[in-house]
Amino acid sequence: MARRNQHSREELQDLAVAAVLEIAERDGVHAVSARSVARQIGYAPGMLYHLFENRDDLILHANARTLDTLAAAMDKAAAKKTPEKALLAMALAYLQLAQQESPRWRLLFEHVMAEGAEVPAWYQAHSERLFALLEQQLQLLAPTRAPSARQLAARAIWSGVHGVCLLAVTGKLDVVSSVREKALVESLVTHYLAGWLAA
Amino acid sequence: MARRNQHSREELQDLAVAAVLEIAERDGVHAVSARSVARQIGYAPGMLYHLFENRDDLILHANARTLDTLAAAMDKAAAKKTPEKALLAMALAYLQLAQQESPRWRLLFEHVMAEGAEVPAWYQAHSERLFALLEQQLQLLAPTRAPSARQLAARAIWSGVHGVCLLAVTGKLDVVSSVREKALVESLVTHYLAGWLAA
DNA sequence: TCTTGTTATTAAACGGTGTTCAGATAATGA
DNA sequence: TCATTATCTGAACACCGTTTAATAACAAGA
Predict the structure, then answer these.
(1) CA distances (Å), A178 to each of A100, A173, A184, in order?
(2) Is B196 an 8 Å CB contact of chain A?
(3) Is B82 contained in some domain?
(4) What is the ipTM of this complex?
(5) Which residue of A has its CA nearest to B170?
(6) Which of A1, A73, A112, B99 lies at a C-alpha separation of 20 to 30 Å from B90?
(7) Does A46 share its domain with A109?
(8) CA distances to A47, B77, B140, B141 from B81, in Å
(9) pLDDT tens, chain A, 199 aa long
């Protein structure tokens, strides 16, 4: 069978991306392969290579959707709060999402570009949106500071929170069960901010 | 050919681990495979499965060596310093090592256990040594605080520093080139500590 | 309506991966 | 010297990402 023309190119891309996320959630990250995704959307594996450049491209499209979900959750979490509380709420929103939809986030955390391949600009734009949300609150919190200082603080906070979420989701943190991940994020954000503001 | 008995089991394990690290450094992380490692040490791929349980086991042994190198560097960096300076020095030692031997660290950062497999206890012991080094300094810095508070702080700091190193090595941080990684680590550690001590 | 051209789709293959295992070979102990 | 034991290999299995020639269905024109 060939040329059925049931879906537009864009529809097929959406179907494939949705299939990636669904398979990851249902069968685990390891189960996401060109063949499994193709089977799920009812096409041959080769079809995926007319829709995406390669596997990286497909996974990045799925991960971009995950990042957008997070950006929306952070926006919501920050609404009508003081900058300090907003920053903490955004960090906790990250942790919560990463924990409750961990397969999606493992897909994001554990994805590695093929040898020599660079992360494309369009994807970086998605992740930069997150930094922008932080910088926005830091702007309100410390309007007189240099923009470069705020950029640095935003990246320091986010790298730190990212580290906690990553270790939490990939299960490398449960060394001491008494230390809860939420407490880690709270400690990291509040103490860093306190120190940063006092400096 | 079979049964040449040139090396003991332990020697062969060491050879294999060394081969993993050498191939990663020379040809890149992607080039590390059962076949390439076996070829490098002059044996058949199947041999590796008499020396290690599986690929994860082999990689973990290599990564444990990387962790031990870091622990030694941290020990050296912390010597004869005040606790605060020691903590910063240890974090910077991490960053420096991760940056200058990035293939080894990509091997560590990007390694993912097979589906359903847990990180074995003997490996966790290696990474716990790092936390212990931090807690040791925090003990000197804030001897009156509860041990659980120090455990939490050690993990918060380390998760944060880990986040920076990871993003730096895997190249996901160069969004704003003006922000240097070293400045991020310094900011993270000093401001967190300042806030933590003031609390 | 018939034909031609275009486009979506697939089957099959290629070279790679981790892993298993029966069998071959050399060292060892009796 | 012979039987046993431990070491090591070759070949296979099932999977992976990816490419490509061939095919079938649609669209357009005559």
Answers:
(1) 20, 11, 11
(2) yes
(3) yes
(4) 0.93
(5) A112
(6) A112
(7) no
(8) 61, 8, 11, 12
(9) 577 888 999 999 999 999 999 999 999 999 999 999 999 999 999 999 999 999 999 999 999 999 999 999 999 999 999 999 999 999 999 999 999 999 999 999 999 999 999 999 999 999 999 999 999 999 999 999 999 999 999 999 999 999 999 998 887 776 555 569 999 999 999 999 999 999 8
